[in-house]
Amino acid sequence: PESAKGVILSSRFLESFPEKTVFLVDVDDTLFDNDCFERDLKTCLLRLFGPEGVVEYWTILEEIRSSSGFADFLGAAQIFRLKKDQSPMTQELAFFFRDYPFSRNLYTGAIDVLRYLKRLGQTVILSDGDAIFQPIKIDHSGIRREVDSHVLIFIHKERMLPKIEGLYPADHYVMVDDKLRILSEMKSIWKDRLTSVFVRQGHYANDPAITARYPKPDVTIDRIVDLLDLLPSELGGTIKKGESNEIR
Predict the structure, then answer these.
(1) CA-only gyration radius of the chain, Å
(2) Which helix (H) or strand (E) element contains residue 34?
(3) How distant, in Å, are the alpha carbons of 37, 152, 164 from that of 155?
(4) Alpha carbon distance 175, 227 (integer Å)
(5) What span, in angstroms and rounded, lies between the C-alpha atoms of 141 and 153?
(6) Residue 29 backbone phi and psi in degrees, to 5
């Protein structure tokens, strides 16, 4: 078996999906525990600059997020450096980002899920983020290798569906994400061509005020590893009469 759960797929299991299915998988708080990363960054800032430094850096980060649409950790570090009068201590932030053990923050079963989905159809990482730090995170965590470098990173991925279709044309798409807003926006465009899979991990996915704003997704799971237990019919496939689709 390739995974901790011992996923075994027969050829008949594979044939129960549409002729071309593309699996799109988010990164932050879906495969990678970004909340944990942010806690570690705050611990580093606290050690180097005290509580005021944490507040100052995070204020910069949120201002950039509001204006650009994504969290630019390196861009915030650049501005923070200037506000600290180019203190040599700010170099330690560079070493924090360079040396961070990204693979340690992958959720349990994240790699198994990518290997599982690759057996079912084309699997693509679809992430929001900046042009430098997000690719480094995806590469150093081992995610990029598992999907054979099929990685797309946009500022607002839900607005890039025509580009995604052009790069990865398919009869059906499956989007796995922790943000209901993104899933609902993609569903409103692709409709029945999309199976939306909501992973209840991270602070966005567990904030009732946020989740109450959006329609119920097609599938909801508590942890990314739970995706290994889903049947083809739950991901947009069809169970053929007389065939067993059991995942052992």
Answers:
(1) 20
(2) helix 34-68
(3) 20, 10, 13
(4) 12
(5) 15
(6) 65, 15
Alpha helix (H) ranges present in 149-241?
161-167, 180-190, 202-205, 208-211
Answer yes or no: are the C-beta atoms of 30 and 114 closer than 8 Å: no
pLDDT (tens digit per residue) in 157-189 = 999 999 999 999 999 999 999 999 999 999 999
Query: Which residues have CB under 8 Å from 168's CB, separation 6+?
Result: 22, 122, 124, 150
- Among candidate residues 30, 26, 42, the one with its CA nearest the CA of residue 76: 42
Burial (CB count within 10 angstroms: exposed 0-12, middle 13-18, buried 19+), residue 244:
exposed
Q: Could you tell me the sign of the dihedral formed by the alpha carbons of 127, 4, 40, 148, in that order?
A: negative
Burial 54-70 (b: 16+ CB within 10 A, else e): bebbbebbeebeeeeeb
- Give pLDDT tens digits for 30-73: 999 999 999 999 999 999 999 999 999 999 999 999 999 899 99
